[in-house]
Amino acid sequence: MFTLVYEFKLKPTNAQIATFEEWLEQCRKVYNYALCERKHWVNSRKCPVNACSIKSEYIIPANQPAPTYNSQCENLTQAKKNIPALKQVHSQVLQNLQWKVDVPFDKLPSTSLRASPEISPTGTSLGIDVGLMHFAAVSNGQTFPNPRPFKRLESKLKSLQKKVSNKRFGSNNRAKAQAKVSRLHERIANTRKNYHWELAHNLCDWADMIFAEQLNLKGLARGMLSKSCLDAGWGQFLDILSQCCFKRGVYFQKVPAAGTSQTCPKCLKETGRKKLSQRVHKCQYCGYECDRDVAAAQVVELRGLEAVGHTVVKLSEGKGSILEDVKLCLPVTEESPRL
Ligand SMILES: [Zn+2]
After folding, report:
1. CA of 199 to the centre of ligand 1 (A)
2. 96 pLDDT higher than 70
3. Which residues keep their CB under 5 angstroms from ion ligand 1?
4. Ligand 1: distance of its center to the CA of 331 in Å?
5. Is the overall model pTM greater than 0.70, yes or no?
6. Domains of the chain (ranges, CATH numbers)
């Protein structure tokens, strides 16, 4: 199964833009009117019998029924006769607005709301560690390269930006050069987002539970490696991953990140700080050896399993690889719902 999200960019003419703006304006008015009507009605019913405000109260007759989706739609039909501007907008669009106002007031017919499925933490699990060397390392030993779209296109961006600054301020050519810069920025952002979605789907193919670190993104972005951190866009990736997991019915949870690279996933002992250049985790206690990011991902996975209440068999007590051991202690795999 492959579900990808497509985004299309409209390129409307000026006349079309004007029409869209006009529609939006009418929608805004209709929405605000409907919301206001509801709020007034609610406020008119709020005043306690023995304590009216000295200043003012909303007064709506006691026998007037509360505004509903149907009554507001009827009012809209009436209003269209008097306000021709409303007719420009497709009637279904305006009705949808009334519906949107209706939702928070909890008057929806039960069929319209679909309850979100409860995803239970069972089945195969994965831990993920995001880093600079690899964009993501997975506890099953896989690593994904960092695409660094920004770095690749950075020199191109620089030369384009230089061209902008060389052009006369306010000139047509400057505007054209600026447009090229914007397009490149957009391209970089799209490349990144696309990669994040692909990776997220890929991970969902592998597991029923995914655990990731709770990153201190603000702290990272301020640090020495800030540019690379922002370029990698981990925050966006984790957001996309959680969305993707929700859609695919995969359990997703973040776990504390502190010290994931200083713990041995096999014997769970502190192994001390690693230098950034030290790419391999080698435990001085049990001799476990693997890629440092993969080891961190395995620690994340163990923490996640612990957090959702699975007893984790210490790897030192079993033989084979970490994944086999972890699977041993999991409950029977349940087919998780695929949406
Ligand atoms: Zn160890």
Report:
1. 30
2. yes
3. 264, 266-267, 283, 285-286, 288
4. 26
5. no
6. 14-44+54-112 (no CATH), 125-328 (3.30.420)
